[in-house]
Amino acid sequence: MTNKINMVQAVNQALINEMELDDRVIVYGEDVGLEGGVFRATVDLQQKFGKERSFDTPLAESAIVGTAIGMAINGLKPVVELQFMGFSYPAFNQIISHVSRMRNRSRGRFTLPMVIRAPYGGGIRALEHHSESTEAIYAHIPGLKVVIPSTPYDAKGLLISAIRDPDPILFLEPKRIYRAFKQEIPAGDYELPIGKAKIVQEGEDITIVSWGAMVRDVQKAVEMVAKENIYPEVIDLRTISPMDRETIVESVKKTGRILIVQEAPKSFSVGSEIVSIVNEKAFLYLEAPPTKLAGFDTIFPLPRGEQYYIPSPERIAATIQEIVNY
Amino acid sequence: MTNKINMVQAVNQALINEMELDDRVIVYGEDVGLEGGVFRATVDLQQKFGKERSFDTPLAESAIVGTAIGMAINGLKPVVELQFMGFSYPAFNQIISHVSRMRNRSRGRFTLPMVIRAPYGGGIRALEHHSESTEAIYAHIPGLKVVIPSTPYDAKGLLISAIRDPDPILFLEPKRIYRAFKQEIPAGDYELPIGKAKIVQEGEDITIVSWGAMVRDVQKAVEMVAKENIYPEVIDLRTISPMDRETIVESVKKTGRILIVQEAPKSFSVGSEIVSIVNEKAFLYLEAPPTKLAGFDTIFPLPRGEQYYIPSPERIAATIQEIVNY
Amino acid sequence: MKFEDYNPLEEKVFKIMDKKGKIINTDDMPNFTNDQLLYLYRTMLLSRTMDEKQLSYQRQGRMLTYAPNIGQEATQIGSAYALEKEDWIVPSFRELGAWLIHGVPLKNIFLYWYGNEWGSHMPEDVKVLPVSVPISTQLQHATGIGMANNIKKENNVVLTYTGDGGTSGGEFHEALNFAGVFKAPTIFVIQNNQYAISVPRIEQTASKTLAQKAIAYGIPGIQVDGNDIFAMYVATKEAADRARRGEGPTLIEAITYRLAAHTTSDDPTKYREDAEVEEWKTRDPILRFKTYLENKGILTKEWDEKMKKEVENEITSTFEEIEGKADTKIEEIFMYHYETMPPILEEQLKEYKDFLEGGKNNDK
Amino acid sequence: MKFEDYNPLEEKVFKIMDKKGKIINTDDMPNFTNDQLLYLYRTMLLSRTMDEKQLSYQRQGRMLTYAPNIGQEATQIGSAYALEKEDWIVPSFRELGAWLIHGVPLKNIFLYWYGNEWGSHMPEDVKVLPVSVPISTQLQHATGIGMANNIKKENNVVLTYTGDGGTSGGEFHEALNFAGVFKAPTIFVIQNNQYAISVPRIEQTASKTLAQKAIAYGIPGIQVDGNDIFAMYVATKEAADRARRGEGPTLIEAITYRLAAHTTSDDPTKYREDAEVEEWKTRDPILRFKTYLENKGILTKEWDEKMKKEVENEITSTFEEIEGKADTKIEEIFMYHYETMPPILEEQLKEYKDFLEGGKNNDK
Ligand SMILES: Cc1ncc(C[n+]2csc(CCOP(=O)(O)OP(=O)(O)O)c2C)c(N)n1
Ligand SMILES: Cc1ncc(C[n+]2csc(CCOP(=O)(O)OP(=O)(O)O)c2C)c(N)n1
Ligand SMILES: [Mg+2]
Ligand SMILES: [Mg+2]
N or C end: fewer C-beta atoms under 10 angstroms in chain D? Predict the structure, then answer.
């Protein structure tokens, strides 16, 4: 039987897989139960596993995360949904003050095997606060892992691994590609490693690091520059923090050039950290300035301006050429 | 008459100065009124200006910032205190979702001339959450300015400018040096530019960028390496965001080397952004890898471990030597 | 009316007109002129028609996501009409009726939902804040505006809205508590439309009424029939009078119903029964008010028809003004973050423009 | 006792013993054995003496910042004593009495205040969470633990604490609302010690009592004399029984007083009158309980003296165990962030150790 599915379905499959295997897995959040989530990522869970294991909550993100902390301490494995990353901030205090700290604070006595899922990123012509990419903010928090899939296959494998991980994970789902394409993926159980990047495409001329929805745009750009005989190596970060520096550094040692493509604002960003890493680890290999192609240092525009914001494949291609011709 | 004062007193003078000049300036927060602040930064304000202009609030940081938004829209200039940066997170949603966005959201119709003050940083042997340096998180927010003074003189001048600034400013005060030293500073009114770094000391051999309490430690390290005939140029960032890139880049073009010294965790940090900037603007001038000396990517330890965390002058000096000898 | 007579713990609901348009509480019936009554009716029509139009434009792919207010017109129009021009409105995102009453131009409203920030650029004399998407955060702004009024010794008041879902967030709590402590002249209206997207009111909180949450803040709280425009007006007016007298904030729970979907991305049949919707349709606030006006001989069929045409024309001509003409210019994205554009934004703008001019682009 | 008989809106306070140690409510008086009574008294002494010792160590520069509980012993010990070993305690930061009753070793408590994370490494069988500094955030963990109990069909309950100041934060609101909706078996005790640092209770909220905030969540709320150990025990026991019966959460406002400073960095004379403190000293919870025990002939002078020495010895010998011997090792800072140390932390640890070994350092 084939299992050709899109990313929301992959998320849903991962949840079902884990809920079947482990009855400590509990899934909740706003509109998560009866309705199955505003993006339908939690559809069928309540029907399959009952109201105790998949349910709706009052509209309060801090308590969604705060109660998950209590549940995790008390032996469950909560997987909570925040409706959009732009609404993760009411829970920010719980995340930075407790989620990321409980293990260290108690020297390992209390641990938090929990996952916070949130759709993130722009490009869906949405209202304000529905297009955020603030992964840099969360990546700066010691004790928190931040994971971002870029395909249905990755979404399923990484989410399964995240749920099984003994540590708390912020799992950000690029909503722009929730339904953008389908992939044939295993119907059963599989894990993908947290903390490891993936070389999506090998190449010689330049290293391109990206994650989430941008990976597809990078791949389109790579096709464009292939016509000019430029062969980039494309790395999908998969885990933002703690970052797989080795894969990046090894690649840059080979190519001598690096472009980071992100939709988040350019400054104080994940891209900045990557530039910093290659400086630290591969300085003498650099043949051109490590470069970020990113969103502007502005608020994500409302739909009539959003076409400017996210780097397009054309801009990516042009930037690749600039760097390669440096 | 002399005016030799420490940093808390300088903050207090700035507040008094502005409250005298402009009766729209309103100062409030937890324990800010009667008690004059847990660090005494707002002492005497209530006595001088009355309970309407300087007052205590209930224990609720979100509402402290959220009501300040309303006040600023309604013609006042609130200067609110969050007791410690570690307690700024309940207000995070208001800061990222509204403080930084109101002007752009309304295309300039509603603006927020307001200041959020918070003591920040470690090294005072405090309880958990009292030693945070998460300026990188706030710096990543478009529309918000982040300012950090490093001396009594700067604290007064920058705070006066911040209060007069038409835009919202997060003003972080390095509590480790609140009372560490006194400086003779003007008793009267003066401004220092927001958005401009300061060259604290000119030099040739390496550029050192720092801010807040670390600037003093850098200066101590610079004295140490002077014995080895190494002459760094020291830049005090003063404004973290939007950053004065020009001053940094010009300096690096001269010295060819850069060390960033911060007490915040190393990864995804302000230092990473500075490395990224010099790569972008001064790549060909770089003679050694731009380097960060920073706090660990860990939670700030409780007092019996805190001595390891903040880079000491000795470590700074050793790192300077390494880079210069690269 | 006196708030004390409507103790929410006794589940007493303040009403003036029943669902057949009959006045059942003559003591509290406000004294409106016919012109006022017709103005209110016309605004209700404008609001309803605007909702219907936007929904249909959206379906045609001419507009984006939209959050209709159908069914909540009396709650919003009744309450907002109790304000003076100098008073403030701090909306959530579903307050079309209130916007119209308080002077927000149709064009702004369209622009906003069309996806352009200029929609939130209110005219200078319109004291209405922009839409606030993060639920219940705006209540704190409303408290702050009220606190500033006290400090400045100004006498105007603030009217702010949230939903039943909006009562669960911490920001609601902090806003009302501050308002209580500082006696902010702020009126908090909960539009209890029975759902927060798919989550029914009963699962939002275990408290029997939402109005009783006022007790936590030591302020008056009252349940009002939100589909009764007179009751909403009178309760809000009384709250405004209290506020102006320095007696502080009030919490009003308006009991109403969202007759349409949460937004155009929502399918309410997933989470509620048709029968429930049908029942609430019999309590339609516009129908009820219309019956009242007709029975009183104030509204004639001709006037009604004429008005319907008039509001429809107003709406279609406003939409024509913006459709296809409201794309954002690249500069606008950068210009409004700070009073003065910092070098980094100038640089990013320039880079992007250079790229466009380099012709390497087909983004647009 | 029945919660319904103590409606906070009528400002009825649940009491059993008056401030002279006389039982004024015999109906509700719990049936303790003499051993139990003396155990409670001894724990009160231990708590008080520990506070005094730590304050004096702090003054001598041998300890760091400390938050004493003096005056609040009955609130904490009475409530925590109503739990079973299998129940959970989720503390704020000022719950010494509760920790002692629920089995937190003295050594942990000292280590914590000595500035070492191992203080929060509770023994495996002690179901007490670490100190939570960000005010009222811990209440949500308590709700979550309770929700998990329901899901797992376990019958133990959760007791959590916050202060009067802690009722103002949004997290309080969300925690209690969730608890109400999900019928979490969680008991929320507000230690109303009249101040949040310098801010008096009256400026914290306009609600007459803190207990009445329960009404916002549809759960029982009750005011209890927090300096009356019997009343605190009985009210908490009743709340725990309700919780075990599946009837959900309870809010208890314990009316008490912080007799000492907020912490060792605080000077309370700045914000409160001596006369007020003196008045509250006459209501000292230990004195009151002692008088009761003496009048009943349960406590003798000799036993009292002996106990005082015993607890003092326990304290000083525990402190000796750790003083000067509890510095953190550099590895410990890195080891507990994740189950497996990621490469970046290994690298940073190694770099630092290399630096230390390079001898260029005199950090330590
Ligand atoms: C903090 C936050 N969380 C989640 C959302 C997503 N969201 C938008 S509207 C809504 C439901 C709001 O319900 P209610 O307050 O009853 O208002 P109504 O939509 O019924 O008018 C939700 C969950 C949001 N906008 N803000
Ligand atoms: C979110 C947050 N804001 C501020 C502080 C600083 N702070 C520590 S204790 C305290 C007062 C707490 O008052 P209350 O809740 O009454 O507890 P008490 O200290 O009286 O036991 C404050 C403001 C904090 N710890 N957390
Ligand atoms: Mg609703
Ligand atoms: Mg208190």
Answer: C
Q: Which of D88, D137, D342 sits opposite A98 (nearest CB)?
A: D137
Is the predicted pLDDT of residue D41 greater than 90, yes or no? yes
Q: Which amino acid is at D72?
A: Q
Q: Which residues, judged by CB distance below 6 Å to any ligand atom, belong to the binding site of ligand 2?
A: B 30, 59, 61, 83, 87, 90; D 94, 133-135, 162-166, 191, 193, 195-197, 258, 262
- Tens digits of residue pLDDT in B272-323: 999 999 999 999 999 999 999 999 999 999 999 999 999 999 999 999 999 9
Instruction: Please list, in sequence order, all residues whose beta carbon lies within 8 angstroms of the beta carbon of residue D302, skipping any fewer than 6 positions away.
Output: none
Indicate whether C360 pLDDT > 80: no
CATH number of the domain encompassing residue A202 = 3.40.50.920
Which residues span the domain enclosing D29?
Answer: 3-327
**d(C-alpha B85, C-alpha B134), whole Å:** 8
Which of B123, B155, B186 is the last residue in one of the domains?
B186
A17: which strand partners?
none
Whether the predicted pLDDT of C307 surpasses 90? yes
Q: Determine what percent of chain A falls in helix, strand and coil, rounding each to the nearest 5.
A: 40, 20, 40
Contact predicate A148/A211, CB 8 Å? yes
Is the domain of D131 the same as that of D116?
A: yes
* A137: containing domain: 2-186
Residue A191 belongs to a domain: no
Domain end, chosen from B165, B186, B207, is at B186
pLDDT-based confidence at residue D359 (cuts at 50, 70, 90): low
Average pLDDT value over all residues in chain A = 98
Q: Are both D119 and D199 inside the same structural domain? A: yes
For residues C97 and C134, state if they share a domain: yes
Look at residue D362 and tell me whether its pLDDT is greater than 50: no
Nearest neighbour of B75 by CB, restricted to C152, C336, C337: C152
The answer, yes or no, to whether residue C96 has pLDDT greater than 70, is: yes
Give the total number of structural domains in chain C: 2
D135 Cα nearest atom in ligand 2 = 26
Query: Ligand 1 pocket, C193 CB below 6 A?
Result: yes
pLDDT at residue number C359: 60
- CA C205 to CA C168: how far, in whole Å? 7
Neighbours, chain C (3 or more CB pairs < 8 A): A, B, D
CA atoms within 13 A on the CB side of A33: 19
Q: Is ipTM strictly over 0.90?
A: yes
Distance D272 CA to ligand 4 centre (A): 13
Q: Are residues B152 and B86 in the same domain?
A: yes
Cα C65 to ligand 1 centroid, rounded to whole Å: 14
User: What pLDDT digit, counting tens, does each position of B210-247 carry?
Assistant: 999 999 999 999 999 999 999 999 999 999 999 999 99
**Closest chain B C-alpha to A286 CA, distance in angstroms:** 10
Tell me: pLDDT of A159 over 50.
yes
Residue C362: the pLDDT is 42
Q: Say yes or no to pLDDT of D363 above 60.
A: no
Which residues, at least 6 apart from A19, have a Cβ–Cβ distance to it below 8 Å?
A: A25, A27, A45, A48, A49, A53, A54
Residues C294, C358: one domain? no
In A, which residues are within 8 Å of B90 by CB distance?
93
**Same domain, yes or no: B205 and B104:** no
Give yes or no: D258 in active site.
Answer: yes
CB D315 within 8 A of CB D49: yes
C-beta C200 within 6 A of ligand 1: no
Q: How many domains is chain A partitioned into structurally?
A: 2
Residue D364 has pLDDT above 50, yes or no: no
Cβ <8 Å between A292 and B273 = no
pLDDT at res. C361 = 43
Residues C297 and C233 in one domain: yes
Q: Which of B218, B226, B232, B235 is nearest to B314 (CA)?
A: B218
Same domain, C293 and C352: no
pLDDT (0 to 100) of residue D266: 94
